[in-house]
Amino acid sequence: MTAKKETLTFTNGELVAIGNTLSELKLKGRASLGRTWLIEHLEDLNKQFNADQLATQKNFFKTDEDGNFVYKEDNKTLILKDDYTMEEAQKEFDQLVSEHVSIEISSYSERMKALFHALEDYPYELEGQKALVYALVVDQFDKAYGKGE
Length: 149
Description:
It is built from five helices and two strands; from the N terminus they run E-H-H-H-E-H-H. The mean pLDDT is 93. It is elongated, with a radius of gyration of 19 Å. Pfam families: DUF1617 (PF07761).
């Protein structure tokens, strides 16, 4: 019987907000170590997302012979390649932003469980974006550890 792989799943568009929110929480001990490990993995996923965004831009927008983007006269607006519309490009970028990415946490289970328990019992009030990100992360831990739906 194989051990269940515990994973946290987010979208590319959520990675930065999650990393930023986690970095601002007051945590100590193993929970802090777990947070640091998780943030490093979020950053790695975000680097890949940025590379994918750049590759997608190069598919849709004109570049010069050196691979640099070509801009309209305002020096702010990229020029679409002749074969594409802005709607097509936007659809592709939207799909990339909403693409799901997972982080396998089984190997670091003790640290991750410490982080999860610290988040479950987090004594400080959170509002706005931080509260939404907090709920998202706790929900993913619930699912990873079999408490979610």
